[in-house]
Specification:
This protein has 20 helices and 15 strands. By secondary structure, it is α+β, with helices and mostly antiparallel strands. The N terminus is likely disordered.
């Protein structure tokens, strides 16, 4: 889903844990330097755990679990892990398959009698696990999430309302990441076991794996050590938008955990405690989209550069949080990254994991790529619109040193923010830059039109709104403003 304006960036009270030899100590220092660079650049705030074999190579906490109370993250801090939940859901399904209570080839219609038969007979459990069901993704529907905010619904009630639309393509024909499928898998689990998803998760995975600091996120529950979630807006860090993750995402993304518990999870997956050898292999067999059961499975160049190695992992992102759990299989390396500032919105936390593995391979990690969102936001409080536009063009000319993806939306949003803050001249300068850099984006011309109205340049505003409508005839805001201007309103 870009922060004293900034609180202290590096409050790390958990010591680095390193092997007792020179190479390990050197690598730990390099990893700390790598991560600290990302923290200083506002691209990470949270916990890092690196394990090779059965040995902790590096463990450290960065930043604040609660920025208002200045509480630092520590080893026991609990983070929302978003879509990492899908790994747990997939294992629960495979356990039920192992016990003969489900079939991977079984259809939704076999397990959910209320699911529309025409679709339910076409979609299998295997397709739900592998994101090939074709079902529409309910999390893209604003009405579905608003429903959670305004009504108390059981998982089945929510699924009946928002997860029953017909497939958008032939099930099994292609990959399309879909939270709907994993929410329905949770409902299947509840239906087959006649227990709540949380109870099944606790009985079948968390307790056997010794994961005492993990569970389903419940906003009403007092949970010691729970991190607050933050996003990075036009004024810097701010409290993330709230949603009841258990109600909204259930088996698709409602869990919290710690770095230590996720290591316990990884260890349990590699033994016989949770799944048979055959189903463990099934779990990490890639299908379409290089997706297995709750995890991506990819082949990448190995340390020597002469062959390949397997990476099994997944990301999670949810209202203020970003999580990444990745295992380099043949090299026996596990990297856990838990962040409470939704870092993916302004950078790619996977770069941290890749850099850590490079260090463990004895190689130089790729240089840090700065965030355009951070670079502009940090200066927006004091710099003029002209200065911000000049900085954008300078960073653009420098190329790979700064991530420019999403620049059109950022320039538009920051310009509109300046307008709403009463800085009309600065807004005009930045929005003019946006219209020059991205002349085919209707929303840029729409925002520029509003700034021109505020500045009294009505003819120019009409031309800007007209351009927005030419690019997007459905732009209701531009149309409404043109009607106002025709009627002499402002």
């Amino acid at each position: 889903m870009p922060f004293p304006r900034f609180l202290p960036l590096l409050l790390a009270y958990v010591a680095v844990v390193v092997p007792g030899h020179a190479q390990g100590d050197s690598q730990a220092k390099q990893i700390d330097a790598l991560v600290s660079g990302y923290v200083a650049a506002e691209l990470f705030s949270g916990n890092v755990l690196v394990v090779r074999g059965d040995e902790v190579v590096f463990r450290k906490s960065y930043g604040l679990a609660n920025r208002e109370l200045c509480v630092p993250n520590d080893e026991g801090t609990k983070f929302r892990i978003g879509s990492l939940t899908k790994q747990f859901t997939a294992v629960l399904i495979l356990q039920l398959v192992q016990e003969g209570k489900l079939k991977l080839a079984g259809t939704l219609a076999e397990y959910l009698e209320w699911f529309p038969a025409e679709s339910g007979r076409r979609v299998t459990i295997q397709q739900l696990l592998g994101h090939t069901s074709g079902l529409p993704n309910y999390t893209l529907d604003v009405a579905a999430l608003d429903d959670v905010r305004t009504h108390e619904l059981t998982p089945e009630e929510f699924a009946r309302r928002h997860c029953v639309r017909a497939p958008e393509f032939e099930p099994g024909s292609r990959f399309a990441y879909c939270n709907t499928g994993y929410f329905l898998l949770g409902v299947v689990i509840e239906t087959v076991t006649k227990e709540s998803f949380g109870a099944v998760l606790r009985e079948r995975i968390l307790d056997p794996a010794g994961m005492k600091d993990s569970g389903l996120d419940d906003p009403q529950r007092i949970l010691p050590g729970r991190a607050a979630g933050y996003s990075y807006g036009c004024d810097g860090y701010e409290n993330a938008e709230f949603i009841d993750a258990g109600a909204a995402y259930l088996s698709a993304g409602c869990m919290y955990s710690t770095s230590g518990d996720l290591w316990r999870w990884d260890k349990a997956l590699r033994g016989d405690k949770l799944l048979s050898l055959e189903l463990r292999a099934q779990r990490i067999t890639p299908g379409l989209g290089n997706y297995g059961c709750g995890v991506y499975v990819n082949r990448v160049p190995d340390a020597a550069g002469t062959g390949t190695t397997t990476i099994v992992g997944h990301n999670g992102s949810l209202y203020g949080f970003t999580a990444n759990l990745t295992r380099w299989v043949e090299e026996d390396i596990l990297v856990v990254l838990l962040d409470n500032t939704r870092a993916w919105e302004r950078g790619n936390p996977e770069n941290i994991g890749a850099g850590i593995v490079a260090i463990l391979r004895g190689k130089e990690p790729e240089p840090l790529v700065r965030s355009l969102k951070v670079e502009l936001t940090e200066r927006a409080g004091t710099a003029s619109g002209e200065e911000l536009a000049h900085l954008y063009r300078k960073l653009k000319s420098e190329g790979a040193t700064c991530d420019l993806s999403g620049a059109d939306v950022l320039l538009n949003n920051l310009g509109y923010h300046l307008l709403q803050s009463g800085r009309t001249a600065d807004a005009l300068a930045l929005l003019r830059c946006a219209s020059e850099e991205f002349p085919t984006r209707d929303y840029v011309w729409d925002s520029l039109g509003e700034a021109l109205v505020r500045d009294g340049q009505l003819d120019a505003a009409r031309a800007s709104f007209t351009r927005a409508l030419e690019l997007a005839p459905g732009n209701a805001n531009a149309r409404a403003w043109l009607e106002k201007l025709e009627q002499g309103e402002r």
